[in-house]
Amino acid sequence: MDSIYVSCPKFKNKRFILRFISIDDCDDLLKVYSDKKAVPLFNSDNCGGDDFYYNTRERMKQALDYWKFEYDRKGFVRWSIIDKKDNAVIGTIELFHREAKDYFNNCGLLRLDLRSDYETKANIIDILKLIIDKTYPLFECNMIATKALSIAGERIKALNELDFSPTENKLIGHGETEYSSYYLKER
Fold first, then answer.
1. CB 163: neighbour CB atoms within 10 A?
2. Which CATH superfamily hosts domain 2-186?
3. Please, are residues 79 and 18 in contact by the beta-carbon 8 Å criterion?
4. Rounded to 5 degrees, what are φ and ψ at 19?
5. Taking the complete model, does pTM exceed 0.90, yes or no?
6. Where are the domains of the chain?
7. What pLDDT, on a 0 to 100 scale, did the predictor assign at position 48?
8. Per-residue model confidence (pLDDT) at position 50
9. Are 164 and 110 in contact (CB under 8 A)?
10. 24, 26, 75, 129: which has the fewest Cβ within 10 Å?
C-alpha cells in the first residue's frame, strides 16, 4: 500500500480527471467548500469538529496544506476532481485504508466532496467509476464504505446503481462516537 504514498496515480475518463491535490486548486476548491448547498452532504465524521465549510482563501489553503501533510504521513490520499470541459476543479475524493475494531475494518473509506451543481446521479457515477475498482488493490481492502445522508438523494441513487448497499452498522470513531448512514461495496 505504500506505493500510492510514493506516487499518487492519476485517473481519467471522457469527462473527469482525478489527480493529486495542488495548491493551484485553491480558488476552484474554495467554490466547492464555500458552497452552502454542498457542505451538508460532506462526510465530516471523525474529523475533530471540522465541518468543511471554508469561506476564505486562507482557510482553504490551510486545508490543502493539511491534506498534503496527511498524504506525506500516509494518513489518506486526496484527489482533486477536474471537469475536463472547462478545466475546473469541482470537488475532491479522499481515500484511506481503515483498520478498526468495528465492522469497517480492512475497509477503504471514501469521502466525496462535490460542488452542488455537480451533485447529480450521472456525475457521481462517472466520477466514482474512475476509482472504485482501483480502490481494492491500491488500499489493500475488501470493501469500500462511503457516507450518504438521507438528504443526498442523487448520491444514494448513484451508489445504488454502483452496487453499494446501505448498512445499519455504525462506524465507531474517536471517543467511541457512533456514525451512521454508510453504504458499502464488497470486492
1. 11
2. Gcn5-related N-acetyltransferase (GNAT) (3.40.630.30)
3. yes
4. -145, 160
5. yes
6. 2-186
7. 77
8. 79
9. no
10. 24
- Residue 151 burial (C-beta neighbours within 10 Å; 0-12, 13-18, 19+): exposed
> What would the pLDDT profile of 77-126 be if each residue is shown by its tens digit?
999 999 999 999 999 999 999 999 999 999 999 999 999 999 999 999 99
- Asked if the model's pLDDT at residue 155 lies above 70, the reply is yes
Burial state string for 18-27 with b = 16 or more CB within 10 A and e = fewer than 16: bbbbeeebbe
Q: What is the DSSP letter of 120?
A: S
pLDDT per residue as tens digits for the range 117-154: 999 999 999 999 999 999 999 999 999 999 999 999 99
User: Measured between alpha carbons, how far is residue 10 from residues 25, 36, 173 in Å?
Assistant: 15, 29, 30
What is residue 70's three-state secondary structure? helix
Closest CA to 20 of 83, 60, 64: 64
